[in-house]
Design brief:
alpha+beta, 299 residues, Arc Repressor Mutant, subunit A, six-stranded antiparallel β-sheet, Jelly Rolls, single chain, 11 helices
């Protein structure tokens, strides 16, 4: 079967064969306006027990696909490369890009999947794909499988809370993918190294000072290049950007709760001069310090 629709200069394409067993599950949703504006929302979700003639092709479809292989094998083509999905392999792709899924001869494939979208879906995908491939093996980890099965059952029941819970489950799945792919460090079983915690404490206390990489290298007795790499790995920001963030947070506090002048706040929070303060503040918050103070006082 082929579904096609003219878009703005391109053709939306979804081609598939009904190559799955009768006890497979396929649910199609129409999200509410609220869900489309504010949440991650499920467009389609299913559990397929695929037969040898299974085939699907997506292109130029505004959604993202997450599928988890439960049993068997499947070949998928994405970004001009062909791979084999096996048990435990999770696939996360942008359905606007051309991709196909097809079984090898005399093979079967069981998979649970969800097709979804949301305002920040592409941001998660962009971070995930930095690992340079669309798949990741989740092995024996049951967390994502549990979330997908809970979401599948939720959409079968169609409760009044379905859309909110869908968004929660999708957020949990995407967060787990960020951790598994190495985009976000997992702190659930790990604490910060002492030298990173030392640097954080120093920044939080002396953010108004000149805190260079040389300063941190001397303080921690670690090469500044290694320190830079490790700080970004653990904190998610470079030391420079973290210092700037702490300075702006303290500037917001002074703007809101003091009568200090803008020039004084710029000095007190470590910015070299008022123009630099204005530029950094507006770039981060989308408004000037004066506008922020006015909004905060009127709130």
């Amino acid at each position: 079967m082929k579904l096609s629709k003219e878009g703005k200069g391109y053709m939306l394409t979804k081609i598939y064969t009904k190559g799955w067993t009768d006890d497979s599950i396929w649910i199609i949703n129409t999200p509410s306006e609220m869900a489309m504006e504010s949440l991650f929302y499920v467009q389609e979700i299913g559990l397929f027990y695929c037969l040898p003639d299974f085939y699907t092709l997506h292109e130029n479809i505004s959604s993202f696909l997450i599928s988890l292989t439960l049993l068997g094998e499947c070949e998928y083509t994405y970004q001009k490369k062909t791979y084999t999905l096996k048990k435990g392999d999770l696939l996360f792709v942008d359905c606007k890009e051309y991709h196909t899924l097809q079984l090898k001869p005399n093979k079967k494939w069981d998979m649970i999947w969800v097709q979804f979208n949301g305002n920040s879906a592409y941001a998660y995908y962009s971070e995930y794909i930095k690992q340079k491939k669309a798949t990741i093996n989740v092995g024996e980890k049951q967390y994502i499988y549990k979330k997908l099965t809970e979401m599948l059952e939720l959409n079968r029941q169609k409760s009044v809370y379905c859309e909110l819970l869908n968004s929660k489950h999708l957020t949990d799945i995407l967060t787990e993918l960020m951790i598994l792919s190495g985009t976000v460090r997992d702190y659930r079983n790990n604490s910060l190294p002492d030298y990173i915690q030392m640097a954080i404490n120093d920044i939080d206390t002396h953010f108004m000072d000149d805190l260079s990489l040389d300063h941190f290298a001397k303080m921690t007795s670690i090469s500044k290049y290694y320190f830079l790499k490790e700080f970004k790995k653990y904190i998610g920001h470079t030391p420079y950007n973290y210092v700037k963030m702490v300075r702006i947070n303290n500037a917001k506090r002074l703007l809101k709760h003091s009568d200090m002048s803008i020039c004084t706040i710029a000095v007190e929070t470590g910015f070299n001069n008022t123009p630099n303060f204005f530029s950094a503040f507006k770039k981060k918050l989308g408004m000037t310090p004066l506008q922020f103070r006015k909004c905060s006082r009127n709130a």
